[in-house]
Design brief:
185 residues; AhpD-like; 0% strand
């Protein structure tokens, strides 16, 4: 099992991350597509090659090809939007908030799967990328469409744990840990 490979690679000092990965992989708050799409979008946002490969392999067992593509699209579009809208939100000059973004975002309107699932994945990536404006926008959409706060929280918990796993493994490689380096290659 690919999630098991991630857990095996994580050092003992991060045992809590291992335990959280286990519990979240078995969480029933989200449906299967929501759960594994959130795992995949979060892994892509975390940018660790090993975590991406392992989560992608696991997600492929639970997601349709369309959902796999949509999860990757959510990570992709949020990589762009989170930078832009974080700038708009943080800039002292509030005039940027009145300007059109002039960025293509067609996938948001037509993600190829249930739009609510896409919103959930976009929220998870926005949490990783720390874009408050995007977090608020996606959470509002989700709550308006009947997604519960528990479901929103679960998606963000997945994002936080997968991001932590990515950061830990990147750190181990940077410190020259041979096991982490061989798994990241």
């Amino acid at each position: 099992m690919s999630i098991e490979n991630i857990k095996s690679a994580i050092p003992d000092y991060a045992k809590d991350i291992k335990l959280n990965i286990s519990s979240l992989a078995n969480d029933e708050t989200l449906n299967e597509q929501q759960l594994w799409g959130t795992f995949l979008a979060s892994a892509l946002a975390g940018r660790n090659k090993f975590v991406i490969a392992q989560v992608s392999a696991e997600a492929a067992q639970h997601l349709s090809p369309e959902a796999m593509e949509a999860s990757k699209a959510a990570a992709s579009i949020m990589a762009m939007n989170n930078v832009y809208y974080r700038f708009v939100h943080l800039a002292s000059n509030k005039e940027y908030q009145t300007m059109q973004a002039k960025l293509r975002m067609n996938v948001i309107g037509n993600p190829g799967i249930d739009k609510i699932d896409f919103e959930l994945w976009s929220l998870a990536v926005s949490a990783i990328n720390a874009c408050g404006m995007c977090i608020d926008s996606h959470e509002k959409q989700l709550l308006q469409h009947g997604v519960t706060k528990d479901q929103v929280q679960t998606a963000v918990r997945i994002a936080s744990v997968i991001h932590a796993a990515s950061a830990i493994l990147d750190g181990e490689v940077a410190m020259g840990n041979e096991q982490a380096m061989s798994q990241a290659a």
